[in-house]
């Protein structure tokens, strides 16, 4: 599945465009199927309907676990580094991971889980999170992982949308010096969620929790029951290639997160192939992905992609800056990491601590570096290249999305010449196009436009859970016969792609996607807020910060306190990741005569660029702009 030279890349790319079905069929043959497909691809972007490997039967965990047992049972699958460096790390070989997944799959069955059920997972970054995910896939249940930083309200919304019947969680989690409760957040969420019949709770932090009789059970007790039942195996459920594998919620430009749906066959092929090819993974290499499994990067490139390739994955529970900003480098040294995959926001944050924290760390095991989540600025790129890679590791800047399932535009390590700030070229099988506002394709090089994809790839989303029309509207209606990514993009003279950021109302804060409408809805819940408008502004570490313009009528009381109350409200409604960095109180928002907020103006003010606000004559009340300008933070 790996191309070995730039020439081979071009050949593979050309074949993938000219004969896509043959191309993907060859790739798919590298995986284990119970039954092969009747047809490689059927599609139209109108409905949209996309089906890959139709008629094929498989179980993804057979590919991620069982098939490695014959020759690689003792290869470490997961090396887990705890939050606290003085606590022992854990190693799970493929044999051990297989057994634990089977055990927990049986726990799920004992608790009534069946094929097709939706199971919510809200857990810390411990091996049991990966085990729970794989156990769902083993029995054909659909997992919906919710990142540990989301609030009770966000969890409840997701559980209700997917009608989950089981939730897997832990008592609490550790992040640096903080102990973060999880079970009590779930308890708050479940007040609104009658569909949940069972809560399975892992012990991690020993935080006191309330266990409700008949509903809540301990992970450890349930495992013991399975052990006494004496059947450690759990036969993998046979799935259709197009059966649902998981739902993962992501923010868009409307107020409500969408449940992006991925299916078994295409997702397996796509994540396995892209992992193997882009990182040029070699047997025995130690691969460290710093993402959380709660995001797509963790799904595709901690769990499924690497495991289907028999890779050894380092999974980290803690944060990059505790006990100090050298933690990543300690982990690299400790496990002799060969491939490090992280995010620009982490790089910028670690950069800001200076070079002292890197001094004396042995980073010589590193061979390849990766970046994901947002455009990487040149300064961070060079620092990563020089200080971490010592100029000898290619930087694989992977552009992709929750919806794409896997890497789309990315260098192939040691094959594609890299360029700072560029995701470089599309991987074989990916056909990007740039379009103008009217949907007209912009051809040639040295151009920029909105990034679309014109042909399906196996890892693409199939629908948004429970609302196919929304999927069509969001991704396939903007431009006819194209998948619209929501990103702006530049193609330089050489044909290299550089992603310039979102062109919709989605912010990218520390690599996390946050919809401005969602934050506004949360702010507007606060009792002293009439309305608000949220925009992004450049932030040194986070990439983008959240800037809120808030209309609050009576300036009664303490402004600073109201600010804190609003921040607390957003934390409660969405989660701490969406907290505004700046809140400016204003007497009104700049609106057109038809009542539309002119975000363009607010964006400029938030960016500190008030010299040229463009045409403000169509505003209902142009004076409000001067007031906002004067009060900008
Ligand atoms: C994988 C992931 C997707 C959005 C995407 C884009 C931004 C991700 C990027 C990048 C520039 C990269 N993005 N990787 N921008 N260069 N290498 O992050 O998925 O959370 O769904 O976010 O992130 O704006 O549209 P997701």
What does it look like?
With 633 residues, the chain is α/β, with parallel strands linked by helices. The chain has an 8-stranded mixed β-sheet, sandwiched between helices. It is globular. The N and C termini lie far apart (52 Å). Ligand 6R9 binds at residues 250, 295-297, 371-375, 397-402, 423, 485-487, 499, 501-502, 508, 513.
What does the radius of gyration come to?
24 Å
* Helicity level: 25-40%
Strand content: 15-25%
Largest sheet composition: 8 strands, mixed
| SS-derived structural category | alpha/beta
- Quickly count the helices: 19
Total strand segments: 30
Shape: globular
Order of adjacent strands in the largest pleated sheet: 12-11-8-6-7-14-15-23
Which ligands appear in the coordinates? ligand 6R9
Distance between the termini: 52 Å
Low-confidence segments, given as residue ranges, are: none
Mean pLDDT: 96
Labels describing this entry:
633 residues, alpha/beta, seven-stranded mixed sheet
List the helices and strands and how they pair.
Blueprint: H1 6-18, H2 20-28, E1 39-44, E2 49-54, E3 57-58, H3 60-64, H4 69-72, E4 76-81, E5 90-93, H5 94-110, E6 118-122, H6 127-139, E7 142-145, H7 152-162, E8 166-170, E9 172-175, E10 178-181, H8 183-190, E11 198-202, E12 216-218, H9 219-229, E13 239-240, E14 244-250, E15 258-263, H10 264-279, E16 286-289, H11 296-308, E17 312-316, H12 327-335, E18 339-342, H13 344-351, E19 368-371, H14 378-388, E20 395-397, E21 432-435, E22 447-453, E23 463-464, H15 468-476, E24 483-491, E25 497-502, E26 506-509, E27 512-515, H16 516-524, E28 531-539, E29 543-551, H17 559-573, E30 582-586, H18 599-607, H19 623-630
Helix pairs in contact: 1-2, 5-6, 5-9, 7-8, 10-11, 13-14
The chain binds ligand 6R9.
Ligand 6R9 binds at residues 250, 295-297, 371-375, 397-402, 423, 485-487, 499, 501-502, 508, 513.
Domain AMP-dependent synthetase/ligase: 66-456
Pfam families: ACAS_N, AMP-binding, AMP-binding_C
Keywords: Acetylation, ATP-binding, Ligase, Nucleotide-binding
